[in-house]
Amino acid sequence: KKKQCHESFWERQHCFQIVERALPCLATITYLCANNQECYVEWISALKSHCVSQLSKAQSKVPRLRELRCLNLQILEAHRLPFKLVPHPYCVVSLNQVKVGKTRVKTAPDPVWEEEFVLDDVPPDVVTVTITVLSRGKRGKDSEVAELTVDLCSLKNGQETEEWFPLNGMTPMGEWGSIRLRIRYLDDLVMPCEEYSPLQQLLVESELNAVRALSEICHNDRIPLATSLLKVFRHEKRETELLRILCQAEVARENETSTLFRGASLATTLMDLYMRAECTLFLQSAVSDTVQRILDSKQSAELNPTKMDVNDDACSNAEFLLMILDQVTQSIFTSPDACPRTVRYICNCLQKAVVAKWPSPSERLVRTRVVSGFIFLRLLCPALLNPRQFGLVNETPHQMATRSLIMVAKCLQNLANLVEFGGKEPYMEVVNPFILKNKERMIVFLDQLSSVTDPNPPPGCMQEQSSSSTLSSSDAGRELATLHHICVSYLPELQAMSKTNNALKKLVTVTEMLSKHKLKYREMIS
Q: Which parts of the sequence belong to the Ras-GAP domain (predicted)?
């Protein structure tokens, strides 16, 4: 059997595993790592035909039917772990007892992980997900101390559940504490791609009525909705339009400049996903050297006295931080051309939208802040805080480097907001001259970055290489199946909205029609 392997397991991307099961209790596992996403997809496709047992019941009866099995697991925190037995806990995630991912090491008794595992190709034979709590030992001798197994069939299909689960100790003793998980498991039927054609047409129509309606009601399903929509629109080469229209709609809805794009919405989620997929070269150009310099340095940039090491010298730390800040701003401010043209175009549209809505001179900085909110607060700063997740480094930074990166991100965030540090954090005031010195440069940089008025490159220029590979029809079917499932989940709300919005009547009709078709397919395979 071929199985996904989360990048956290080996701290490397594009890993997968082959599980050869001679007996139910005996398996040989081989881990493999592809060089890149394209290579990974090729390997998976090539192996699929050899994994006979992975043909689901549906496929064996109707070859063009597939089952969609996605597990989204968030390990949030644990409570009251026995500190003496598990001082440095981390979790390993297993499907049917085969390990697929792991969290970072934290400190007991109440560790907070807040780590997400998205496994979007769960084999049909997988019936359980197990979270094992291990204690990081000296010289790599880690010990399993407690676990929790969840039967996938016990979860409500497609619905997110969040709860505390009691942990069972490996040794029979008293309390082992509990762990808080957020889980969504979707087991659905993917019909042949052409079945979803009416839904696809409705979603991509020029006014985006259906998408806007879904954005208003699908708050709990915002991430799967955004992920699938983005893939479908990219398949149609219309992702720029999707992002532009939803961002402009959000500007139109908002009354306060201070809260603009600060909350989580479909527009911000789409932008997060899109920038993360497209801005790798920009991130490398803007912050990669800084991250590496911090990782290689023996010097801390910590300014918070409560977080400083005993041997830390506040002056040396401040000096190092200011040096790093000068370097990183120089690197960022000279990188606007590395930012993808489409992202720059959307920033341009955002600037125009906010200036039209808030033309008064007192609001003149809103055009800067609307762009910095995306480029800094949602891209550059998160990349500094999680360089491994953004593909800038292969391993999780050590503790001192992590704290230094937090300090750099914190300072850049204030600079991006064009505000100095106040009295609440007196130890940060040493950074204020740096912020004052660079405010104007920040405004100029963001205007320069947003100066692209056409998403298409000028004649004679090479088309930018998009990091998205085009969707095959089976992948498009899969994304449309997810979108149909979301429409079904929110059908009562859509029906209510359709009473006052004629454009949604079609969406309701198509959703119901596809459900009937799916029922027929289910009858064919039952």
A: 221-417
Residues 409/385, Cβ–Cβ less than 8 Å = yes
Cβ atoms of 419 and 410 closer than 8 Å: no
Task: Kindly list the domain boundaries of the chain, sorted by start residue.
Answer: 1-53, 65-190, 193-236+471-525, 279-455
pLDDT < 70 regions, the chain: 1-3, 21-26, 49, 51-60, 140, 460-474
Pick the CATH number of 65-190 from 1.10.1200.10, 2.60.40.150, 3.40.30.10, 1.10.460.10: 2.60.40.150
pLDDT reported for residue 444: 96
Element (H, E) at 286: none
pTM reported for the whole predicted model:
0.84
- pLDDT of 382 reads 96
**CB-based contacts of 289, cutoff 8 Å, min separation 6:** 327, 331
Tell me which residue has tokens 């697991």: 73
Rounded CA separation 456/400 (Å):
43
Could you tell me which CATH number the domain at 279-455 has? 1.10.506.10
The reported pLDDT for the residue numbered 246 is: 95
Q: Rounded to 5 degrees, what are φ and ψ at 138? A: -75, 150
**Alpha-carbon gap, residue 298 to 136, rounded angstroms:** 24
User: Which residues, listed in sequence order, are joined to residue 133 by a DSSP beta bridge?
Assistant: 91, 146
Tell me if domain 65-190 and domain 279-455 are identical in fold.
no
Amino acid at 325: L
CB 291 within 8 A of CB 405: yes
Nearest CA to 335 out of 391, 404, 285 is that of 285
| Distance (Å) of CA 156 to CA 151, 183, 421, 437, 484 | 11, 10, 46, 54, 17
Run of H or E residues at 129: strand 128-135
CATH code, residues 193-236+471-525: 1.10.506.10
Percent of the chain as helix, strand, coil, to the nearest 5: 50, 20, 30
Q: Are 75 and 84 in contact (CB under 8 A)?
A: no
Write down the pLDDT at residue 15: 83
